[in-house]
């Protein structure tokens, strides 16, 4: 997800492209605001990776009846400079600081094994200002980039004690994610299962990703597999994950401020009525002239 050195990962590449597009599109009438957050899910608890305090407390996950699940107290840092290279450097610094705080440990399979899932979010707010009236409207998008910890077998990793507990929680959340994906895939393949219960709350990971998996989002899953024979079962499981995930169909709509949308629609209606009135007036003039000519 992050990459290293010149081999940039998905997150820095996406940020680079995003800020490049912002620089090309922004104007006095169209402005953008970019904010980022970075968190890890460790042993079913959420930690803010951008919180500078050394003794971090786990954060609570809550659910808003309109906005959906969110992490209460999670840092959301604004990036205000639209110069691409400066923004990318700022993002790199934030990611680097967050990665330092992420929980890693050595196992028999990996000397720097991720012991948590991580979610890096980019919140983009677009503001369009009507120069005639000064009325503005907002559209908000959230890009959530999720780095999942790999599934583990204690026999292979040699995990004991705390490492074993971490691996158990990783596997639990991945199992729940697989179950949620299967339920959502079944809903799309069979309309009769539309009201079937989806166990989002069985893990913190799936609860936080509720909107990304089955809500107002476009979702892409990248499956990483190994060609090694020793990893055959894990590779097969990962491929089954991806196969089920591709059967999920979401219908995303633009998150537009409802008041701004009403104003925009009313203005469009006024313009349409003006055009209709103009055409009716012109037609009446022609008819009147025609009547005079006949007389």
From TrEMBL:
PROSITE patterns: KINESIN_MOTOR_1 (PS00411), KINESIN_MOTOR_2 (PS50067). Gene3D superfamilies: Kinesin motor domain (3.40.850.10). InterPro entries: Kinesin_assoc (IPR032405), Kinesin_motor_CS (IPR019821), Kinesin_motor_dom (IPR001752), Kinesin_motor_dom_sf (IPR036961), P-loop_NTPase (IPR027417). One of its GO terms (molecular function) is ATP binding. GO terms for biological process: microtubule-based movement. Residues 1-248 form the Kinesin motor domain. Keywords: ATP-binding, Microtubule, Motor protein, Nucleotide-binding. The keyword ATP-binding applies. GO terms for cellular component: microtubule. The keyword Nucleotide-binding applies. Belongs to the TRAFAC class myosin-kinesin ATPase superfamily. Kinesin family. This is Kinesin-like protein. The lineage of its organism: Eukaryota, Metazoa, Ecdysozoa, Arthropoda, Hexapoda.
């Amino acid at each position: 997800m992050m990459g290293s050195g010149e081999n940039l990962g998905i997150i820095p590449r996406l940020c680079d492209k995003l800020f490049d597009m912002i620089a090309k599109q922004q104007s006095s009438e169209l402005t953008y605001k970019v904010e980022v957050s970075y968190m890890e899910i460790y042993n079913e608890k959420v930690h803010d990776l951008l919180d500078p305090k050394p003794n971090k407390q786990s954060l609570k996950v809550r659910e808003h009846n309109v906005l959906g699940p969110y992490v209460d107290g999670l840092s959301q840092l604004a990036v205000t400079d639209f110069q691409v290279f400066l923004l990318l450097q700022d993002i790199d610094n934030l990611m680097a600081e967050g990665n330092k705080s992420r929980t890693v440990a050595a196992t028999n399979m990996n000397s720097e094994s991720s012991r948590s899932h991580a979610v890096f979010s980019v919140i983009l707010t677009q503001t369009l200002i009507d120069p005639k009236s000064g009325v503005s409207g907002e559209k908000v998008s959230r890009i959530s980039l999720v780095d999942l910890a790999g599934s583990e077998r204690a026999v292979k990793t040699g995990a004991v004690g705390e490492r074993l507990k971490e691996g158990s929680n990783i596997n639990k959340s991945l199992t729940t994610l697989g179950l949620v994906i299967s339920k959502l895939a079944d809903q799309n393949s069979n309309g009769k299962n539309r009201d079937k219960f989806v166990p989002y709350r069985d893990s913190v990971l799936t609860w936080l990703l509720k909107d990304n998996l089955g809500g107002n989002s476009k979702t892409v899953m990248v499956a990483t597999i190994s060609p090694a024979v020793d990893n055959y079962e894990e590779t097969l499981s990962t491929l089954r994950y991806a196969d089920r995930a591709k059967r999920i169909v979401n219908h995303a709509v633009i998150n537009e401020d409802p008041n701004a949308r009403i104003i925009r629609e009313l203005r469009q209606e006024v313009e349409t009525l003006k055009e209709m009135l103009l055409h009716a007036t012109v037609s009446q003039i022609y008819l009147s002239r025609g009547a005079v000519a006949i007389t």
